[in-house]
Design goal:
The structure holds two protein chains of two kinds. Chain A contains no helices and twelve strands. Chain A is mainly beta. In chain A, the strands form three sheets. In chain A, strands 2, 5, 6, 10, 11 and 12 form a six-stranded mixed sheet that branches. In chain A, strand 7 and strand 8 form a beta hairpin. The model of chain B has no long low-confidence stretch (mean pLDDT 92). Classes of the chains: A mainly beta, B mainly beta. At the A-B interface, strand 5, strand 6, strand 10 and strand 11 of A face strand 5, strand 9 and strand 10 of B.
Chain lengths: 116, 116
């Protein structure tokens, strides 16, 4: 069965510190997608990144970077030099292979507070 | 592209009443999802439409819940005889397809239900 675990419920950091949000997933599929979404206090989930299971190359986008390791079934998210605007709940998600399963499975989220 | 719209944003009702939520997906997105999110949890899958066909339903979707997408455009989610346990944020999301860049869920702002 598909499952996403975000063990960190809440994290607080001081502005400009780096922070890593952990995500561990379980799936029997050999082809799948992983995602990170941000949910700010306003409530709307905002897409950040999608990764397919064949692409383990790490990705960097500005202050954000993602580390995908199939060997440990992890897809961790690092924010460098955190800012107050990064305060939000972050969700990791897993979807099944292209053209087949239709569900997205979400973790329980990590609430990040960046203290000015 | 005006995003995914949901209405109403907030609904307060008394136990036993019926409520209906509406979702207007992004126009070219033929896949539409309903999720439920309670405090401190990630979104939980309720149901999925491809065009007007309801292809998957979660065990969470009891007989009191019904969803429709009559013309393959907007969708409604009705909850009959509401219970206090139905209090949650109901999220609608859509995506264009399941391949490559189409495989991203775009979420609406949600409809928050409070059952007194």
């Amino acid at each position: 069965a598909q499952k996403v675990t975000q063990a960190q419920t809440e994290i607080s950091v001081v502005e400009k510190e780096d922070v890593t949000l952990d995500c561990v997933y379980e799936t029997r599929d050999t082809t799948y997608y992983l995602f990170w979404y941000k949910q700010p206090p306003s409530g709307e989930l905002v897409f950040l990144i999608r990764r397919n299971s064949f692409d383990e190359q790490n990705e960097i986008s500005g202050r954000y970077s993602w580390n995908f390791q199939k060997s440990t079934s992890s897809f961790n998210f690092t924010i460098t030099a955190s800012q107050v605007v990064d305060s939000a709940v972050y969700f990791c998600a897993l979807s099944e292979a292209e053209g087949t399963g239709n569900q997205f499975y979400f973790g329980t989220g990590t609430s990040l507070t960046v203290i000015p | 592209d005006t995003g995914v719209s949901q209405d109403p944003r907030h609904k307060i009702t008394k136990r036993g009443q019926n409520v209906t939520f509406r979702c207007d997906p992004i126009s070219e997105h033929n896949r539409l999802y309903w999720y439920r999110q309670t405090l401190g949890q990630g979104p939980e899958f309720l149901t999925y439409f491809q065009n007007e066909a309801q292809l998957e339903k979660s065990r969470l979707l009891s007989d009191r819940f019904s969803a429709e997408r009559p013309k393959g455009s907007f969708s409604t989610l009705e909850i009959q005889r509401t219970e206090q346990g139905d209090s949650a944020m109901y999220l609608c999301a859509s995506r264009r397809g399941t391949r490559g860049n189409e495989n991203v869920l775009t979420f609406g702002a949600g409809s928050r239900l409070t059952v007194l």
